[in-house]
Amino acid sequence: MSAEAGADGGSSGSEADERSDAGDSYRDNQQRLGQGAQVMGPVGGNVTVINGAPLDETVADLIVPPRLREGPYPAADVRARLRAFVEPPTFRQCRKVLDSHILVLRAGSGTGASTAAFALLAERYGTGGITGIDSPDDLSRWRPAERRGYLLQGLSPAAATSLGEVVLTGLAELLRLSGAHLVVTVRSETTLPVDTVPWQVEHLQPPAFEVASKRLKTTPNAGELTTEQSTEALGRLGAADFADYLRAHPLPQDGVDVAEGLRDLVVFGKPAASVLDDLRAGSITAARKALAEAGDRADSLALMAAISLLSEQDRTVLEKFSAVLRPHIEERGGPAPDAAGQPEPVDTRRPATARPRTGRNLLGPSFEERLEAVGAHQLPLRFGSAQRYPVQPVAFSGRHRSEALLRCLWLDYEGMADLMWRALGEVAHHSGIELAAGQAIGKVLAHATGPDTLRQLHPFAVSDRRWRRRLVAYALGEMVQYPALTSAVREQLRQWSRSTPIALRCTVAETCAGSYGLARPAAALKLLDSVLNGPETKLEDSLRAAVSFALSTLLSEDANHPLVLDRLREWQGAAPGTQHHALAVHIVECVSSSTFPRPGAPGERRVRLADLLADHPERAFDLVVTALNDPATHEAMAKGLSLIESEPVQRRRTAFPDFLTALSGTARTNRGVLRFVLRRHRVRTASSAEGFAS
After folding, report:
1. CB burial class (10 A; 0-12, 13-18, 19+) of residue 550?
2. What is residue 177's three-state secondary structure?
3. How many angstroms separate the CA atoms of 441 and 447, rounded?
4. Residue 267: CB partners within 8 Å, gap ≥ 6?
5. Mean pLDDT of the chain
6. Cβ(459)–Cβ(422) under 8 Å?
7. How distant, in Å, are the alpha carbons of 231, 261, 655 from that of 241?
8. What does the CA dihedral 665, 667, 669, 672 come to, rounded to 10 degrees?
9. For 451-484, what is each residue's pLDDT tens digit?
């Protein structure tokens, strides 16, 4: 805070004395200010107040212990988990399989498989001898560190695909040597290789009634109930109404919930009907019913949301949040149908919680209701290795209804196709939508007519975003399956492959990296050759990645290897500075140092130099000679050959001594080969001399 006393600096002595006296008069007037601005005494001019950041609010310091750990589980945590444990029907079978040091426990969500896994390991190592491990993408890389029980909860789909008899046998041996055991829980929906069956057990949940009974029997030791109260609660558990509830709710957690409700019954004297009502009110069905009943009351919806979001907070906090949220909910319904543009009348004589109903559905129909209205339903959850999150697909009830509806919307109603293209352009990308939309659009356009059939793909084909180009590639791959459109698709790809925009040529390459390329490998290689004839002086990263992806897709089928290798050798022999030569240099560098395509880049099949030498010795031999003769690839190829020679497994697989003999035989007519042979000879001779001198 600053104050200007006046513009004139030469004030008279009397004025100065007056100001001094005024300041002295406030010297002993001390006040404390917790927040805001405080001004004391007269101010002769402007006052500038600089507001800083607000004071820190008191924050929660509660530490929430994790349910899943990567490391040792505290013994007390394990004992708490096993408090109400009831052996499931498959527990004896689990013990027997775990004798092999590995158990893969398949189970549905909420059936108590993790608790059973803790119990199995606690039997062998005690409650303090269990270590959690995170789910790796490749379980074969994991190693046990000590003699303990290891628990992997929720095997990832990617790790599930990497399992197999060889991996599990190797892990079992490592666990046996270290005196350890491993239990892996995996969802029932996750697909596992068939040869892992000997290590699998399908978990069956224990009866919820037995879980509730076990929980109540432990309450005296836990200090929650007296022995008499525990006996009374167990007697109430056997009543018909609670037995019926547990038959309809058979999960272990349902048994725990009933036990806690009976504890409240005997401690606080709650009626049995009230306990059952509380249990039923927590279901999804009850929640949906309550929301539907309050769907036209913004105040009720706001209060329900506040209590749900800010559970057990002070009423003043709930009231403030509800007051802020209510106007936003009211906006969802738009103007009232009987008073458009007029504010909703409010009777100030009535309490705020008794506002009149608006007659508008402020929430709108639920997603399930909207699906039912259009004849669709949700499919079971899917857990695939391609995505790292669960997916719940939605489908129509009829087998081909999706295709029929989209075809009618797209072709029969004016402007709908443009709207759907616009929505696709605005929606945030999620992995997989390019495949679904591309195939669906391709099937629709297979029934379209006129020149606009393929022309409408152009905006996405020329996009800088790869997922949009992939969508077009999938659509074209679907359309070319229809004989009436084969010629048109082929001509469109030919034109795009010769276009100036790089994005269009990338789309052609992406199309070749699919069913089109696998169905017509020779035609696809011609298109890729044309794609690399662009006017650019430098091979763009996007184009290189797209062509590399297409080549790797062709290499995924062994019959295409000769065609690809012959074309690669042609590109290797192209003039330096051309895009063909630049791509060939890139491929040689990749196969020599690691794989082509490189790890992390899009690719259907990744090959190494050793793979080419072993599987296609004649064509690979010609490729090696050409690469050694090219100054741009000589060093990379020489290093790749040295790596093969130094690795015993690859050396035997490629019959490297015989290959090297044949390569040396061409040295007289190939300067690059001669350079490699002489340098190798000098290195080996120098190494031998050093060894002899030592």
Report:
1. buried
2. helix
3. 10
4. 225, 229
5. 83
6. no
7. 18, 13, 77
8. 150
9. 888 999 999 999 999 999 999 999 999 998 888 8
